[in-house]
Amino acid sequence: MEYVSPEGLRLDGRRPKEVRQLKCELAVLHRADGSAYLEMGNTKVLATVYGPHEVSQRSQSLHDRALVHCEYSMATFSTGERRRRPKGDRRSVELSLVIRQSMEAAILTHLLPRTQIDIYVQVLQADGGTRAACINAATLALADAGVPMRDLVASCAAGYLNGTPLLDLNYVEDSAGGPDLTVALLPKAEKVTLLQMDSKLPLDTFEAVLGLAMDGCKAIAAHMRQALLEHTRKQAVVRGPVRL
Amino acid sequence: MDSQLEAEAFKRIYPEEYFQRFLSEGTRPDGRPLGRARSTTIGFGAVSTADGSALVKIGSTTLLAGIKLEVMTPTAEAPDAGKIAATFEMPPLCSPDARPERRLEETSVVVQQVMNAIESAGLVNTKELLISTGKAAWVAYLDIYCLDADGSLLDAALLAAVAAFADLTLPPVRVNPEGHVLPVLSGAQGGNLRENGDASSEVVTVERRKLTLGAMPWAATIGLYKGHLIVDPTAEEEALLESTVTTILDEAGRLISLFKPGGITAVTTALIQDCVELTRHRARELKQILEESSQEDEDEGDESQ
C-alpha cells in the first residue's frame, strides 16, 4: 500500500512533517481539581487530575515526595471493534505506567511530600497516537490543577513508511507495520522523558525519525502553552484583580 | 473577598444550615428556584468511531453514551429480533470521592432503570435490528460513560441513551446465502450494482438506515428535604437530601417507572402526584431540547455536505 503519494501527500492529505489538527480545552470538568480535553485529529482524550490530596492508602505514603497515581482506560466505543475490557488489560496497565513515569519526570514531587496526585485519562475516540495524546492531555490537566512542574511535557509520535519519516501517525499508518516512535519531551530543557519504539530501524534513519518527533513535540508544546496562556488570561478576567 | 471566604467556610462547617438558609428564601445554592432543572444540552454524534453517540450535559453532570453494533445469530425464541445490551460506567475521573464499591451499586441501579425504561416505553423495536430472519441480527451495545457526576445521574443517563439511539445509524450490509454478513464498503455506494452483479443473485443488501423510534421515556429526579420538593438536585444537594423520587414518563405522559430508593422520609400519595406533575413539566422541556438539538444537528450536516 502507498502511504505517501508521489506528490508527497499522506492518506489523510497531510504532508510528511505535519501534525494533525490539535485542539485543547482546559477546565472542562467542574468537580475535578484539573481537567483537559484534547483532540489530535480524530483521537480524543479527556484527562482529569485530583489532588494533591491526602494519600488514600497510608502505607503508600512517601515521606519525601508526592505519590503519583495514574489510570488509563479506553471507552468501549472508542475503537473500530468494540473493546471488551476497557481497562485492566496489559496494554492499559503499560500505558498507565508510561504516562505516570513521564509525568513524574516533570512534576516537582519533592515539594509535595506525603500527598497523592491522581491522574485519570480516558480515551473517548482512538485514531492512532493515543499514547502521545494522553500524555499531552495529562500535562494540561496537571497545569490546570496548579501542580508545580518543571515544564509542560509534550509528546508526539513519528514513524517511517515508504522511505519517508512521517510525523504523528494516524491509525491506518500506525497499523501499517512500520516503526512507531513515541517521544515525550521537556521542551525548554530539550530533555527526553519518554522514548518508545518496538521495531527495527537503521540507526541513521532512527536519528532522522527521532529528530522529526522532537520537532513535533516542540510544535505541540508551543500550541499547548498558547492554549494554557489563553485559558489563564480568561480566568484572570473572570476572577478579577487579586487583592492581597 | 472576606465575606465570600466566610460563606465558603460556613458551607463547609454547617452544610445543612447553609442549604436551609437558601431554602427558606425559596432558592438554592446555585441560584435556581426549587422547581427548575439545570440547563441541558445534547450533542449528537460526539464520537465518530461509534455507530451512534450523544454527549449530554445537565448542568455540570456530563454523560457520554455510545452505541456499537455487532452481528449475532438471533436466538431460537426470537428469530426475528436483535437485542440491546447496556452498561453504565463511572470511571474514577467522574467524581472526587473514591469509593469504588458504592459506585458499583449505583451503576447497576442506573443501568437497570435505563433498560427497563427503554423497554417499557417501547423506544426501540428490537425487530428493527434484524438483518436476516434466523440468520443474523444486530446487537446494540449501549455504553454510557459518566464523565462528571454532579447529581441526577439517572435522568442524564436515560437522556443520553435516548439521544444515542436517535443518532444511531445501521450500516449497510450484504448477507450471503450462508447467512454471513459482509460490510458494504462506504466508498462503493455507487458501485452497489457491480457488487451485486459479480456475487450470486441470492445476496441480500440491507440499506443504511436510521431506527424508527417509538415513545421516548423522560426522567426527572426530585429530592425531598423537609417538605420541599427539589427538582434536579446536584451532587452537593443529594448528599443532604432525605430522599429522592425518580419518575419516568413516556411521551403521552403515562407513568413508566417510579423509583424511590429508601431514605428517611416516607412519602404520601399526594407528594408522589406532585412529583409526577413536576416530571411532566420537565418531560416537555426535555422533549423540546432533544428536538431542537437534533434539528441543529441536521442543519449542520446539510451545511457540511
From TrEMBL, chain A:
Chief location bin: cytoplasm
GO function term, MF aspect, one: RNA binding
SUPFAM superfamilies tied to this protein: Ribonuclease PH domain 2-like, Ribosomal protein S5 domain 2-like
Domain of life, source organism: Eukaryota
Keywords: Cytoplasm, Exosome
InterPro entries listed in its UniProt record: ExoRNase_PH_dom1, ExoRNase_PH_dom2, ExoRNase_PH_dom2_sf, PNPase/RNase_PH_dom_sf, Ribosomal_Su5_D2-typ_SF, RNase_PH
Domain Exoribonuclease phosphorolytic, first and last residues per copy: 18-148, 151-215
Protein name: 3'-5'-exoribonuclease family protein
Compartments where located: Cytoplasm; Nucleus, Nucleolus
Organism: Klebsormidium nitens (Green alga)
Protein family membership: Belongs to the RNase PH family.
A Pfam short name: RNase_PH
From TrEMBL, chain B:
Keywords: Cytoplasm, Exosome, Nucleus, RNA-binding, rRNA processing
InterPro entries hit by this protein: ExoRNase_PH_dom1 (IPR001247), ExoRNase_PH_dom2 (IPR015847), ExoRNase_PH_dom2_sf (IPR036345), Exosome_comp_Rrp42_subfam (IPR050590), PNPase/RNase_PH_dom_sf (IPR027408), Ribosomal_Su5_D2-typ_SF (IPR020568), Rrp43 (IPR033196)
GO biological process: exonucleolytic trimming to generate mature 3'-end of 5.8S rRNA from tricistronic rRNA transcript (SSU-rRNA, 5.8S rRNA, LSU-rRNA); nuclear mRNA surveillance; nuclear polyadenylation-dependent rRNA catabolic process; rRNA catabolic process; TRAMP-dependent tRNA surveillance pathway; U1 snRNA 3'-end processing; U4 snRNA 3'-end processing; U5 snRNA 3'-end processing
Keyword rRNA processing tagged: yes
GO CC annotations, alphabetized: cytoplasmic exosome (RNase complex); nuclear exosome (RNase complex); nucleolus
Keyword field contains Zinc: no
Cellular location(s): Cytoplasm; Nucleus, Nucleolus
Residues of the Exoribonuclease phosphorolytic domain: 37-171, 216-279
Family matches, as PANTHER family: EXOSOME COMPLEX COMPONENT RRP43 (PTHR11097:SF9), EXOSOME COMPLEX EXONUCLEASE RIBOSOMAL RNA PROCESSING PROTEIN (PTHR11097)
GO molecular function: mRNA 3'-UTR AU-rich region binding
Family according to the record: Belongs to the RNase PH family.
Full protein name: Ribosomal RNA-processing protein 43
Superkingdom of this protein's organism: Eukaryota
